[in-house]
Amino acid sequence: MAFSMKPTIRCQQKCKYCYEGISREYNAEVGEQEGKEIDQIIAYFMNPKNGVNSAPNLHGGEPLMIAKDKVEQMLKAVFTKYKESSIQTNGALITKDHIRMFKEYKTHVGVSIDGHEELNDGRWMGTLEATRSNTAKILKNIEWMMNEGISVGIISVINKHNAAADRIPKLKEFLLWLKSIGIKAGRLNMIELDFPELRDELALTEEEAIAFHTEMPAFLKENDLTYAPFTDVVNALLGFGHKTCVTTKCDPYHTLGEQPIYGDGTKGNCLRTTKDGVVFLAEKNLAGHSRVSNERYAILRQIPMNEGGCGGCRYWSICSAHCPGSAEDGDWRNKTEHCKPYYAMYESTEKNLKQTMPMLKLTTELNLPGDQVFNKIQDGTASELVFERMFKHKGAF
Ligand code: SF4
Ligand code: SF4
Known about the structure:
binds iron/sulfur cluster
């Protein structure tokens, strides 16, 4: 289970596609408690009864909109309990006080940025000039943190501005620039677009999305870069685990992959599942149980692929319909709207692995009943079966 701290969901940037946009529109003040937020959040994760066993990530909205002394209070409390801390930020509001805190509380800083110049135009600041100068400032702050020895990772949202065919070369330049300053890992996440009117501007066409997902692995390998989802697919095919929540059969009403702690001391659900302004509560279901449900997955697996489900899909155990927040038509009962590009990525990665190591028996080739392959990937034991034949086989020259 992963927890985050959400003292606010407000943000000074106006990224057009933000998956928290709908929540913000309907309920921007969620959990805010007139100055008591920070104490309530800290009290929640300090309480052993709440089972927060790993360091909660400081998240938002934009967490650096909070007063510096409050940011310090949270990072310090997390560091005191877990000996490390982390934050996800848009990177624009970093000051020398934050740099000091990040060093003092061993904070890993995740920065959300989609590239330099026009690549980052989806993260709109009202005018083109303001957007571009904000992007330039974030890049400077990333460099500043690297020079100060802070651990930095990047999350880029893949959209028309940074991954249309004519933008991919520039996206690659961006990743190489990051490498040149010491950042070799991060995430390249497909856009989750809750606003249909923005599709023309921001959504990749299916062909573009497939091209992106099949072209990037070779570039990343060539340049010794480690970016999800590509690394996650290799790990799942080799049986080493589902490395991020999106392929772990996430229950949209009990999102174990992200459990936000709000400023009123309550726990909620990942805001990716919020499509109509209702921020789901996570503590209990209607029957009063904090039960996690498998219904989405049990049903989608029975519906054939050509009828909109995942029935018969070769990649079920490494994908499982993907994140409910990215479901077709914003309806978690459906599979991900990115099924085709992901399928293409799985297929090409599988082919590459088999060409490199033909003796491997990948998780897609394991013939076990029910959910056993998924479960064995989940706990990492599938890797023993994947490599078994390589260890046993001794051929003549
Ligand atoms: S809704 Fe998606 S991103 Fe959120 S916890 Fe679930 S799988 Fe992860
Ligand atoms: S690739 Fe498509 S059909 Fe296969 S499990 Fe994923 S979403 Fe379902």
